[in-house]
Specification:
- The chain is globular and about 35 Å long.
- 37% of the residues lie in helices and 26% in strands.
- The relative contact order is 0.25.
- α1 packs across α2.
């Protein structure tokens, strides 16, 4: 499965659970960590957990893939799902603003995901 196919599943899963401000940044040429970062936020820790859970569920159901690692479970306000070439960051709004990954990776390319959003 390509990274782009993973992105579609991930973005649609986040959108289905009402994630806010979903962004995909192509970082392939900037780091060896991943090809893409997906960044989204929820309105509460409960929604943040639900967003991460739905992403995991849809990736397992549709792509037959589990994350290589998951960081920040159990009520965390920042959850990371590592799918090797795609890393998903699910924040609560305050944490997202504080860490500002979009600013840190501003040299990356913003990917248009509008075709995957309802």
């Amino acid at each position: 499965m390509t990274a782009e196919q993973k992105l579609e599943i991930i973005v649609k899963a986040l959108d289905s659970k009402k994630a806010e401000d979903i962004r995909v940044i192509k970082v392939r040429d900037l780091t060896i960590l991943a090809d893409y970062f997906v960044i989204a936020d929820g309105t509460s820790n409960t929604q943040t957990r639900a967003l991460a859970d739905e992403t995991e569920y849809q990736m397992k159901e549709q792509a037959k893939i589990s994350p290589d690692s998951v960081q920040g479970n159990n009520g965390s306000n920042w959850i990371i799902l590592d799918y090797t070439d795609v890393v998903v960051h699910v924040f609560n709004k305050e944490q997202r603003e504080f860490y500002s990954l979009e600013r840190l990776w501003s040299d990356g390319e913003d990917i248009d995901i509008s075709q995957w959003l309802k």
